[in-house]
Amino acid sequence: MAADRHVRVVQELGARIVRLDLPAGTLLPTEDVLAGELAVGRSAVREGVKVLAGKGLVETRRSAGTRVRARETWNLLDADVLRWRFAESRSVDLAMIADLRVALEPGAARLAAESTDLAARRAVGLAMSGLWATVEDADEEFVRADLAFHRAVFVAAGNDLLLHVHDQIEAAFGAVRPLHSASAGHNRETLAAHEEVAAAVLRGHHRKAETAMRAVVEGARADLLERDSRRGAVS
Amino acid sequence: MAADRHVRVVQELGARIVRLDLPAGTLLPTEDVLAGELAVGRSAVREGVKVLAGKGLVETRRSAGTRVRARETWNLLDADVLRWRFAESRSVDLAMIADLRVALEPGAARLAAESTDLAARRAVGLAMSGLWATVEDADEEFVRADLAFHRAVFVAAGNDLLLHVHDQIEAAFGAVRPLHSASAGHNRETLAAHEEVAAAVLRGHHRKAETAMRAVVEGARADLLERDSRRGAVS
DNA sequence: GTCAAGGCGTTCATCCGACGAAGCGCCGGC
DNA sequence: GCCGGCGCTTCGTCGGATGAACGCCTTGAC
Which domain holds residue A213? Predict the structure, then answer.
């Protein structure tokens, strides 16, 4: 897969930078040296570095070399950057994503309820049926249905930027999501809250949709924090 | 500035793709042909295409050529992509950004009020002072203070992903922002609403902060829509 | 001693020609 | 008609040559 050399360069350097092995301001070795270290040609190094520059991770200037840019200029929502960052997901990062959902999803639910796209709102109801259908199934199935439900809400919100944020976050979060909503009997509890969201969106009740969604994501956040503290106590 | 050839390749092709001059699925010409058309060498073309691939706009496969990817895989929040997209800002796009703010900022204000970082919350109050100080100034000054205020809220929210979304949006939106909050006597009206946000954040009253911020951004959205319809009536 | 101008080395930017690898389709054998 | 191999196209990579920008250091004037 990663047979392409320049991809390897991107992954290798990108991961190092995001992991802070190469702090901001660090001057990278020259292209020739990098080529030697990574066992690739200069072309591959250059293409890789250009990709990283496109993601805002580095900056190259004639005769001045390539240096790592400050974190603020990084494309934090780039798929690769997210992956590198959440590769080893510490609880701090999980909490941050839980916070992000609390900030994002109620507003999305509100927009969804306000949407004039009836089909998209009906899709939320459909996704809700999926939740009911899988509550007794294996956890994996239920999680998939849960993801579909939340995504349907963002789709109904009718804002592709918002949807994009959700998708990126979900992709990065996906790996650890099972860990998130994994308790077996727990599924039922969240169903009622989800149902309220779906009903409110379908009925176009934006305030209710927002409140209900907040209950869902805050519940998830509290669940995560509790689980985390318990895990911390055990280990 | 854009003397670097590969940058020109990125800009040229990227803009075309985002503008949908090159629809998804389109097979780009051969590297050699592209090099000819853009009057650059094959290396420059390759570096440029690699950058675009890094942004998710295109996909290259050995011997199969380079083709434009579906919009869903684009990095919509990439600085370049946003700029290409909002280069000629149609009212539809402005409405979308206004919607996004409605979805985002209340949640951010809520998180800000919940934050334990007292200094960051005080910074919101400080930014509020800036608003009071510039209300009589030239519009440009006030707009700058307004941007600083909203950014301070996101900073206080303590979620760098959320802050990043805000910054990217603001950067893309910046060009047309003057158009947004440009009415002279209008500044005063929004001040009270902003003050409520600042006060609520400082006092840690998250529900109030959220509600007040919603009033601010919904006011801005309504303002924008009204202005737009009026402009539409004139033209 | 101070300062400025110009030469020089470093490093990225680009072009180019060569070769390798991977699909894809054509074409001949059966 | 089916199948396998061959060759063409196109991307992937290499590395040498050249150009351009920038910093540094020498050199010379005052």
Answer: 90-234
In the prediction, which pLDDT does B177 show? 58
| Nearest chain B residue (CA) to A3 | B62
Let me know the angle formed at the C-alpha of A85 by A81 and A90, rounded to the nearest 5 degrees. 160
DSSP secondary structure of A66-120? EEEPPGGGS-TTSHHHHHHHTSS--HHHHHHHHHHHHHHHHHHHHHHHH-S-HHH
* A/B interface, count of CB pairs below 8 Å: 120
Interchain proximity A103–B159, CB inside 8 Å? yes
Rounded CA gap, A85 and A170, in Å?
Answer: 14
Give the domain CATH number at B200.
Answer: 1.20.120.530
Report field, pTM of the whole predicted structure over 0.90: no
Answer yes or no: are the C-beta atoms of A18 and A73 closer than 8 Å: no
Question: String of b and e for A218-230 (b: at least 16 CB within 10 Å)?
Answer: bebbebbeebbee
User: Which residues of chain B make contact with A48, given a CB cutoff of 8 A?
Assistant: 50
Place of tokens 């009925």: A203
The amino acid at A66: T
Burial of B186 (0-12, 13-18, 19+ CB in 10 A): middle
Chain A within 8 Å of B54 (Cβ-Cβ)?
yes
Tell me how many domains chain B contains: 2
Q: Can you give the CATH number for the domain in which A34 is found?
A: 1.10.10.10
B71: alpha, beta or left? (left if phi > 0; alpha if psi -120 to 50): alpha
Q: Confidence band (pLDDT; 50, 70, 90) for A235?
A: very low
Q: Which long-range contacts (CB under 8 A, 24 or more apart) does A130-136 make?
A: A131/A191, A131/A194, A132/A191, A135/A187, A135/A188, A135/A191
* CA-atom Rg of chain B in angstroms: 21
Q: How many other C-beta atoms are found inside a 10 Å radius of the C-beta of residue A203?
A: 12
Same domain? For B54 and B114 the reply is: no
Res B156 pLDDT > 90: yes
Mark whether B100 and B210 lie in a shared domain.
yes
Partners of B99 on chain A (C-beta within 8 Å) are 111, 158-159, 162
Looking across all nucleic acid strands, the nucleotide with the smallest C1' to CA distance from residue B32 is D10
Q: Does A169 touch chain B (CB under 8 A)?
A: yes
User: Which residue is it, tokens 């529900």?
Assistant: B207
**What tokens does A176 get?**
């650890």
